[in-house]
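Researcher: Structure for this, please.
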Amino acid sequence: MRIKSTLLGGAALSLVLSLGLGVAAQAQELTTKWKGAPEFSNDDVSFKMRGRLLVDAVFQEVDRSGSLTDFQTRNIRGRQAFIGVEGKLNSKFAYKFEGGFVNGGASSWDDAVIEYKATETTSLLFGNVKVAGLENLTSTRFTEFMDRGPYGDMGVDSYLLGAVVKTNGPDWTVTAAVQGASLNTADVNAACVANIPGGADVAGQGTTCSSKEQMVYTGRASYAPIMTDTDKVHVAASVRYRERGNQAAFAYAIRPLTNFGTSGAYMTSSAIADKDTTIAGEAAWVHGPVSVQAEYADIQYSTFPTAGIRDGHAKVGYLFATWSPTGETRNYDAAKGEFGRTKILNPITAGGTGGFVLGLRYDYADLSDAFTPAKNATNLAGKYKGVTAGVTYYPISYVRFMLNYTDAKIDNPLGVTLGSGRVANSDVNLKQLQLRAQVDF
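Model: Predicted structure, token format:
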């Protein structure tokens, strides 16, 4: 059963876990460390509150060719407001729970994980878990740009509910997962059709019933061939296979490096796929204050008879480079195959000026295989290209202010004229300015 929680439930959970920690620590003295918030621990037991607040301003100017209407938009929005807890019950069991509100919508879970540490290097995780994708596995708190863009919309999955096994060495990781839908998704309840006595029986089926959610099988392997004080190199590959079951068909849709608006407003395949296989590659290089990162995914999808579109491929990727003029280096953990929090060298709390990061990014997506004239009124299946420039300022390691400017173009194949006189699949030119204020702990 899926669960939609409120922050009240999260607060109650925090209280229970705090009491549990106190009981476990009765015979020992607690030690306290500061990691954005107090972390209490004794030997194998630990407890820490966690949370984040991201406030965004988004401004867009959209120019659409043909007779479609141009428009402008501005929005001040709560991108994320989350609260949660994390810790260890002993040397074998750990937990992480975090939930809240995204984009002003209903409350939902993000992390909700129970971890069993089978050995020093192998863990089993049960719950809402991310599995693959370098930028996907990098928390929104630590990404170099404000959002993950087309790759995040089309590529590897975000949080899904299931079982995950992870094993690692000092410079490599291997992860495998079997998952369904997100913890925040309602159960799949398909209606059953029973043929009453004496009624028509369709092909001898009698009673038919199907209630199956999607299934997702994912594997990822990462390796760090170079790990020195000044240079770190990351390479990884992942494979994902999905079957939709009785859930909605898979659609491939993008937004222009933002979480604002509806995915697919300007470019989408519509819901066309029964199942798909994604093969993805990752690479990153950190050289002191300079970093380069890229990912690319090829998604081979199989349609169903009523989709009206042939089988095909969806392609998506990005490349970016960042530089810190104040000398900060991105925090890469080879034993996790992930990036973490950047440590600011001269925070303002120590009399410094804080840290700056400058970035330039290119995003690409191709849905051309999904375009057919018969579907042109409902799918905008073309090509996306976007360039983003970003500036981030960190007064301290747990606070940052971001500015991203994106100039993007969507080239949609020209379709027939609709009954309203508008031209379907018109090209789109988009200019977008985004600002963010963020604190986390």
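Researcher: Any notable elements?
Model: Residues 7-440 form a domain with the Porin fold (CATH 2.40.160.10). The CA atoms of residues 53 and 81 lie 5 Å apart.
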